[in-house]
Amino acid sequence: MSDSFPISLHPDAAAGLFPVSFEQVEETWSHWPRMFFEPDGSFVWVAEDQSWQLDGVVYDRDDHVLRVDLTGVYTAEPFQQLVRSLGWPDAKLRVEKVRDGQFLDVEQFLRDSVS
């Protein structure tokens, strides 16, 4: 497995909030195999073969997801599944590489940081 590093997912600055609610995310994610989602928004999602793992917290405000903090080993398929459930690619999302203080769009993050 690759190194784990923290990121935060944000909606495009012009949008303000994600186009989905906390409850929609909870409903969707709770059906994914090996996804463990808690009522406080914390979660862990791990591959059956343990080749990747994502964990973090979903934050909400005004009936919409505000931000998703993640850490883990990012591989293309699960990462894309996760951001699709948050409205991407219809909704423009940004990835904040927390340690670098750098914002990337999802496509650039996928090219640069995802195996």
Query: H/E order of the elements?
Result: EHEEEEHEEH
Number of strands: 7
Between the first and last Cα atoms, what is the distance in angstroms?
A: 10 Å
Helix content: 10-25%
Shape: globular
Number of helices: 3
The value of Rg in angstroms is 13 Å
Could you name the ranges where pLDDT drops below 50 across 5 or more consecutive residues? none
Mean pLDDT, all residues? 93
Give the DSSP E fraction (strand runs of 2 or more residues): 35-45%
Estimated structural class: alpha+beta
**Strand sequence of the main sheet, in spatial order?**
2-3-4-5-1-6-7
If you had to describe this structure to a student in words, what would you say it looks like?
This protein is an alpha+beta fold. The protein has one domain (5-113). Helix content is 23%, strand content 37%. It starts with a strand and ends with a helix.
Summarize the structure.
The protein is built from 3 helices and 7 strands. It is α+β, with helices and mostly antiparallel strands and 115 residues long. The chain has one domain.
Describe the protein's topology.
Elements: E1 5-11, H1 22-29, E2 35-37, E3 42-46, E4 53-61, E5 64-73, H2 76-85, E6 93-97, E7 102-105, H3 106-113
Antiparallel strand pairs: 1-5, 1-6, 2-3, 3-4, 4-5, 6-7
Give structural attributes.
115 residues; alpha+beta; seven-stranded antiparallel sheet; 3 helices; 23% helix
